[in-house]
Amino acid sequence: MAAVQTRPYRRILTSALHRRFVHASALSLLVSYIIAIAIGEKSSCEYISTLSGRASKAQFQVLKYKELIKIFYAVFWLWFPFGSCGVRTALLFISSLTIFVLRVSQMHIGSRTASSSFGTLKSFTPLQIAQTFGWYIFSAWWFTVIYVWSSSSDSNLELVKRGRPHERPTLNERPIYLHSFHAFLACVQAVFHLYYDYDRIAVPIAERSSKTDDERTHPVPPTSKYLQGVLLPELVAGALRSVTVAAASLVTYPIFFRGFAWSWSLYVAKLFFSFPRSAAEPHSFVPSIFPYFFFKTLAPGVMLVLSWQTANLFYSVFIGKEPLKRGQPLTTEAKDPNGSLLSGLKAKKEIVKTFALWELSLISQRVPDRRKAIFNEIDREGGSAWSQVLACTTDVIKAINTRIEESKNPAPVTKPLPQAEKSEPVLQTLPRLSEPIKDGNIFTTAPKGTSRQDKFGDAFSSAAKSFGQSEDWTPTARARVRDVFDRASSAVLSPEQKQKYLGSPQKFKLLTGGPSTTHRPEDMNPVLAQILRSPIGQPFRQTYAQRLSAIVLGTPESSLSLIVDAVESLTRLLIASLAEDPYGKVQADVPSAVRLLTQTTLALNAFAHQGGLDAHWTDINFPPSTDPQAQAAARLVPDVEIVLAALRSGLKDLLTAFRPYLRDIGIAGKDLRLAKEAAGIDGEEVL
């Protein structure tokens, strides 16, 4: 009998993501349809309003039958999807589709982690930045083209004003400003996209609580309910952003964009028309289209941002759903469910591995048939299914200890091995003009020179030594430093603080001295501290929370979801093995799992809460050592606390479930004491 071919988990996941992509695209298509109705030619609407005005005077009953037919015809073609409105919808959808392409190419699950904001910026590759700006600018350009094409002739949005037959054509600044405004809007949206990390698929993570019956580690709300709660705030935020950028464009367009946009538009228009030399530059600094046309561009700008906001929202909501298909795990319908799941657990790509561990967590919580299949399959290639699951989950947990140890003992920088010296040919050099360098004892007193050259060297060296051996701060130097400090402190210190530091010689020495030797934020240079507190220094501050998250959760992206699902899957499967393992082989791995969870919990708690990681000298907002309570509160980092809570609850559940068998399986003495200490269990609670 031929062996069953295992379907890779990434293919199963790709099929599921394709279905979700279609659902998100359908909602974006609906948004494009609404925008297509809004930007349609308004001649029919004007005709309806004219007839309504007549009806108000002649008592609507006197309208002729033909006029009613015209009203119906105008309204029908305004929204009918298989006419011009449908064509506009399809073309506008391309603008939203470009955002989906961007999200697919840069999608990730965990939040970006780095020791500082500047480090987060460095984690972006030039390709990611170029893609983000490029796709948004293309989307804005395409939307503008469709908007101009859909507008009526009364809108006067043609690039060239042809004028009368005897007049030369001139450029129309209305479409030039519209393109520039939308391009500026695209750049602002791209900055928001990178700063707020729109590429991240937010997966909610909840701590396990006895107050609720929901055991899910990722409580994803229903799609419709979630959209009802966040759609309106997203639309309002997008509208405000568009209006703000429009107001800023009143200044930025004439100064930065107008000259380039005008010359580029003229270059394109010259391919089809002949312009006078006077058309090379705008006639005035302030555009003549302000302010009337400015208000007319607010509506398309708002619609453009709303199409971007909704596209990002729909993509994140549908892609971030649970790895389920009709209520069952994605691998349920595969020919080899366990093999497909194991291929996902061993995957190198973060997306595939995250969804595979999420699915394993769901299986360990509420799918007993799949749990039994994992325990029963003992003759799989590469080891039993359980042993491979155990290896994958423990590797994720062990990585925490590895990162902590590497931060404590960083690996030394290895220098390249010196290459063997090659014999080189002897070069014929010019005659030496000076004496060779002396290689004798440098600490012996040098004899006085006899020649004129030696006497000049002795005089010069004595002068140089006098400068090098002088005091650090002479009165002249100190006066100059006071003058420089007086100028610099006026911008960052209050008059009271300034007088205080000038009057204290010790603190003034700190001001004129180098970096603090204690490397504590509280001992920092006051002027440097003020700079770090300012917006200029904020990107360079390495806060305690950022550094701890980067070490515990990994870089450049957080593995929080992986860790929580690994702990949850491991503990739930071990507990379920008491009733579902027919061979009793799983219990042999309980002691090693308990020791791993104990070691990780104690190491992480000591590293995060007991001074294992010191505050960086740039973390000027970290509480001083004189306030231990404030320091303890500052060491509570939310994501790290979620990991600690998962480790403790998992360890506690294991000890409680295996309580009658702890001594039989080899958990006693020191191992049991440390495990209870790590889990936060009282001495008499578990025997």
UniProtKB/TrEMBL annotation:
The main location is: nucleus
Pfam families from the UniProt entry: Ndc1_Nup
Membrane topology per the entry is: Multi-pass membrane protein
Residues spanning the membrane: 21-40, 71-102, 133-150
Q: Which domain of life is it from?
A: Eukaryota
Q: Which key words are in the record?
A: Membrane, mRNA transport, Nuclear pore complex, Nucleus, Protein transport, Translocation, Transmembrane, Transmembrane helix, Transport
Where does this polypeptide localize?
Nucleus membrane; Nucleus, Nuclear pore complex
According to the UniProt record, one GO cellular component term is:
spindle pole body
GO annotation terms (biological process)? mRNA transport; nuclear pore organization; protein transport; spindle pole body localization
Q: Name one GO molecular function term.
A: spindle pole body-nuclear membrane anchor activity
Query: According to its UniProt record, which protein family does this protein belong to?
Result: Belongs to the NDC1 family.
Q: What is this protein called?
A: Nuclear envelope protein
Natural source organism:
Penicillium desertorum
